[in-house]
Amino acid sequence: MIAENTQTQMRKGILEYCVLLIISRGEIYASDIIAELKQAKLLVVEGTLYPLLTRLKNNGLLSYNWVESTSGPPRKYYTLTETGRAILKQLDGTWEELAYAIDTSRKVTDQQSKEPTNQTES
Amino acid sequence: MKKTHNINIGNSIIHIEEDAYEMLTVYLNEVKQHFSKNADDFEIVTDIENRIAEMFTEKLAEQQKQAIGIEDVELVIQQMGSVKDFETSEEAAGGELPGPEYDPIKKLYRDTDQAMIAGVCAGLAHYLDVNVKWVRLFTFITILLFGSGILAYIIFWFMVPKAKTRAEKMEMRGEETNLKGFANSYLQPFAVQSRGFVAEFLQVVGGFLQGSGRVIFKIIAGTIVFFGSIFLLALVVVLAAFLGFWNSDVYSYFPINIVNEEYLVTLTLAVFVILAIPLLALILFSVRVAFNGRSSNRVLSYGLLVIWLAGVVTGIFYVAKISSEFKEGAEFAKVTPLKSYPVYALNIDRARIFTQEDSLNYRIDANGYKDKKILNDLDDDFNMPESISFRMEKSMDGKVSMNTNYKSRGKTFEIALKNAQNIHYDFLQADSSLNFSPTVHIPKKANWRGQQIELVLNIPVGTEVKISNKFAEFLGGYNYWDCKQEDDDEYTIWVMTDSGVKCKYERLKKEN
To answer: Taking CB atoms and an 8 Å limit, are B86 and A51 in contact across chains?
Structure first.
């Protein structure tokens, strides 16, 4: 249970970062975002994305346009706002820091696990 | 074969099978409830609905089918994720977001599955969580109390929707309307009734007639049979009376004296048939209703109908024939000069000269009573309706006279004139008082043909007339009551002027 909680928390943060990354490439439709996230195996169910997108939009990171669709009603296409870009840059920095932190920690852990005195991993 | 619904989801019109529709409704309700704590719930739910619509459209195009089935909905829900999936991700994000541990929402619906009439009581019982029999008992008591319960019931019937879908039935029982509850209730048999109020009402009425209503109808039918039979018996007695078992005097009373004597028997039979046959039919029908008898003999029914129609035709024939006897009118006038007095008193006198006819009527020897007066003891004569009118006119030559106009109608002018001549009417002058008979007499065997007496009193200007209250009913066109000085005055005084008759009292008032 605790493990699950940690997992979802980690996923949650990374999901937000990834969504911003995907949108930063240009106007994109929600289901295309979903498709990409699914490929990256970050997202299991689509329903989670919509609250996230709405929250990001309300915080001023995203904006959207209605674009006419050939097959059905108009669709929402999302773009990054200036604030969004700024925050994405910050997140880039944060991610690098995190990656460094994890890299370092894991290196040390790997070295120690090779030593015979260590207990088994959970 | 499956029933489908047309839904508008995300601005697309989608055909969806009934079971799939119910599942989708439950899912969307769950989603809505889940996001209801979120300020942006409307936008999120709209986004989700749009996406579902898109997925449906894709599925329909891919599989080249017309309607969304339950398996499609299942796939979509899987893809979109259930509320549980949302919870885990959000719990992690927000930290202490409470899970959807809300009480299952209970809504008031009519339970047509357990309905006695329209399911109002059963629905209330679900809502209030009591046994339905207590609600019904309470309703019954309120109906006894001035019937207020009936009105309340009808209002509930109109206002409260019936639980149609499975989701609504679950809400009615207070079960959780999530997919788990949905799956549970799926196992229970479930009939969808989607009919209008009127159709439902008619069905209820039909059911009522089959059951408890039948008792009431039997009571009504029994009452009709009872009173109808009495009435029919009375008709037969009246018929017998008319056909000669009774005093023949009845023929000379109005309105029977309209009918010529030679038509009377036939017309009486016709009227009897016209009245009695529908009554008989009503009684036979009521007997059938009351005692569940089989429909009556067809020959008998048609026979009765034919006799009734014959009666109607005969009746119309004679009525037309009698009406034709009112076609022509005739009148003649008799002028009686009167001694001149400054004041006349007009009265009703019930005494009249004994006539030859009276001696026949009352079987009294005419010679013994010749020129004597008899007293007419009837206030109104049944002989004929309102038939005397009186008015006053200015005499040009200064002489006083009374014009008596005898009027009547008849098939031809000659007959009409003869009828007019047969009218017998009395008035007597005793000094200054004129006494009038209250009734017009026509010969005993004569028919009523609109016989009338018109009295015109010609008096010179300045002559006064005292009119008694009893005589006043013959006055046409005079405002008698306005002329009274006191309400209990026995008479009023009128006076002839250059411009016609005026009320003396009113004139005096003007002069003062």
So the answer is: yes
